[in-house]
Write a structure and sequence with these properties.
The protein is mainly beta and 336 residues long. It is built from two helices and 26 strands. The longest helix is centred in the first third of the chain and has 8 residues.
Length: 336
């Protein structure tokens, strides 16, 4: 039959089913310091050491556990290179191999050998079945050089839980995502390493990301993003303001259509669909101010043009007055 399911109640739990359930992207887990699988390069042997004096080095690869207990290290041999100019780049990985059926288990540290004289890294195993690797480090060693004279690139990746909370925990495993309730300005935070230290980093600034989605563009001072936004369900309301040049922006005989005037246009920069876009244009100039209403029409070039502007009037920019605005777009739209 085409469909299958598992495990079966009261039956053995096959490795393949376990991997299908738990074998997501391989990663280091439970590391709150960034010290898991720390690499030590020796001065006189061919064995690098991996481990941490303070935290367990724990990883999950193909759904299976690998661990080096805190205070212990595991050696991996990196043979001497025969090439003096470029050397050889090897990978150190945590490898899951279903052929590993004895201690220390199905996951263990391994070396993926590179090619002498090649300046590229060797490929590691990424298949959904069979061997799977979690890259930890790439080490480049040259002929007659000790390992502590080698260069390395940190390839470690971390995974943590995704949670919703009203405040950030004091500490968390690297890779943890927290969506802060009631704090749209800060959006979602990721626990990650910044200059080698664990920190919370904003990965999507809730309102700010959408404020940057609609951009007013003009030829005299560049694009301007939204200055304010209100969100209510899927409906959004915000404004974008421009300082206009001393020129006629909209002529009263244009019929209120601004689609061909390149100095007054609004561009959608987001990568998510929107609908029901409505645009109002507020204007201010030396003779007075007022509100003009128009429609936002999305062109094939990604720009929203203002059409059917009413009342029908001559709209000029002032060309002076730093910090002031001449045109303010009020935009409402619905996230599709």
């Amino acid at each position: 039959m085409a469909q299958e399911s598992g495990p079966l109640a009261g039956q053995p739990f096959p490795d393949s089913v376990w991997r299908s359930i738990f074998g997501g992207e391989p990663a280091i887990v439970g590391d709150s310091t960034g010290g898991a699988y720390t690499l030590t390069l020796p001065t006189s042997t061919n064995d690098v050491l991996l481990g941490s004096p303070t935290v367990d080095s724990t990883a999950v690869v193909a759904g299976f556990l690998h661990r080096i207990a805190a205070g212990q290290t595991q050696a991996v041999t990196i043979p001497a290179s025969t090439n003096a100019s470029i050397g050889r780049t090897d990978l150190i990985v945590v490898r899951y191999d279903p052929a590993y059926t004895s201690a220390p288990g199905p996951c263990r540290l391994a070396r993926v050998p590179g090619v002498e004289g090649a300046d590229t890294r060797p490929a590691h195993a990424t298949g959904a079945t069979g061997i799977r690797d979690l890259p930890l480090f790439a080490i480049t060693r040259k002929k007659d050089k000790a390992l502590n004279q080698s260069t390395f690139v940190d390839l470690r990746s971390w995974s943590g839980p995704s949670t919703t909370a009203s405040e950030l925990p004091a500490t968390a495993a690297l890779g943890t995502l927290v969506c802060l309730t009631g704090d749209e300005d800060n959006g979602t935070r990721l626990r990650t390493l910044v200059s080698g230290a664990p920190q919370w980093k904003t990965v999507k600034s809730g309102i700010s990301a959408e404020q940057n989605a609609f951009v007013a563009e003009q030829s005299w001072s560049g694009p301007m993003s939204a200055s304010s936004m209100i969100r209510e369900g899927r409906r959004r309301a915000m404004y974008v303001e421009q300082y206009a040049a001393d020129a006629l922006l909209v002529a009263s005989n244009s019929g209120g259509n601004v689609s061909d005037i390149k100095t007054l246009r609004l561009r959608w920069m987001g990568d998510w669909p929107v609908r029901d876009v409505q645009v109002r244009v507020a204007y201010r100039y030396s003779e007075g101010s007022g509100i003009a209403f128009g429609d936002g029409v999305l062109g094939t070039d990604g720009f929203f043009r203002i059409t059917n502007l009413a009342p029908n009037l001559d709209l000029h920019g002032r060309g002076s007055g730093a910090g002031s605005w001449d045109i303010r777009f009020y935009v409402e739209y619905t996230v599709a």
